[in-house]
């Protein structure tokens, strides 16, 4: 039974997690430096690939593009965990949080394993396959966040949800100051402030900020992946870690939205 006290306790746990995310370890700061140097020596074909990503991410927010995921598989997982005969996306919001969490955890595990295999595969050829790894990992990240959105009853076909997904992606790879700023922006979704949502759209200036922040997260780990063959190990570990952390962030941010909506609904019903 999800009582108001239980929801409040869960909300406090998420807020504690948010505060913990705002600490950046020393080696993580160091890890962000190499790409500033790498820009000067990066082959033109990789620079061109980054430019393509900017366009693709913009297309994702506007239309969903090639990254828009199918919801049937996630609804099937929710149906299995809830033991209901049929489930539509509109029904998910009324499911227990425990059901949503179970599917979210399953997605986090499965996508982390997939990222491990993908990172090892693209790590074989060093810097040449790194050009493939970055866009593939971005696509997997967007797919993972969309699936988590559906698990918590939100529709990625909605443009505002895709903005939330991109901001969640940015949150997972931002520094201390950036994480706080993004949390402040996401409060618009928690309180359903439509005017602020419109402001958030304009803040994603050409999507460049999101893509370069996302890329910078690779740091020295991806530099190690540039070594042929040895890059298999580094690629597998790095990609697994990135998708695991991203999925965790997505679950926490979507879980917070669902809890706040239930608390708001409970408050209205008692007044």
UniProtKB/TrEMBL annotation:
InterPro entries documented for this protein: EcsC
Superkingdom per UniProt: Bacteria
One Pfam family of this chain: EcsC
PANTHER family associated with the record: PROTEIN ECSC (PTHR41260)
Protein name: EcsC family protein
């Amino acid at each position: 039974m999800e009582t108001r006290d239980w929801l409040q306790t869960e909300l406090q746990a998420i807020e504690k997690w948010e505060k913990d995310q705002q600490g950046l370890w020393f080696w993580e700061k160091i890890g962000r430096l190499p790409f500033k140097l790498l820009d000067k020596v990066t082959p033109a074909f990789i620079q061109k690939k980054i430019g393509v990503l900017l366009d693709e991410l913009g297309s994702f927010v506007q239309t969903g593009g090639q990254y828009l995921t199918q919801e049937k598989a996630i609804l099937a997982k929710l149906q299995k965990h809830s033991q209901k005969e049929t489930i539509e996306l509109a029904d998910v919001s009324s499911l227990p949080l425990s059901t949503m969490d179970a599917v979210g955890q399953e997605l986090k595990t499965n996508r982390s394993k997939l990222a491990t295999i993908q990172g090892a595969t693209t790590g074989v050829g060093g810097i040449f396959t790194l050009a493939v790894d970055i866009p593939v990992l971005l696509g997997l990240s967007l797919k993972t966040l969309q699936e988590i959105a559906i698990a918590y009853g939100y529709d990625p076909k909605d443009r505002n949800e895709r903005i939330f997904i991109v901001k969640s992606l940015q949150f997972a790879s931002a520094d201390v100051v950036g994480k706080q700023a993004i949390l402040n922006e996401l409060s618009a979704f928690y309180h359903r402030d439509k005017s602020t949502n419109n402001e958030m759209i304009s803040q994603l200036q050409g999507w460049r900020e999101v893509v370069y922040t996302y890329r910078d997260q690779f740091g020295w780990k991806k530099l190690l992946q540039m070594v042929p063959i040895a890059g298999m190990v580094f690629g597998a570990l790095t990609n697994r870690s990135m998708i695991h952390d991203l999925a965790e962030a997505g679950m926490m941010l979507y879980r917070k939205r669902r809890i706040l909506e239930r608390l708001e609904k409970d408050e209205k019903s008692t007044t």
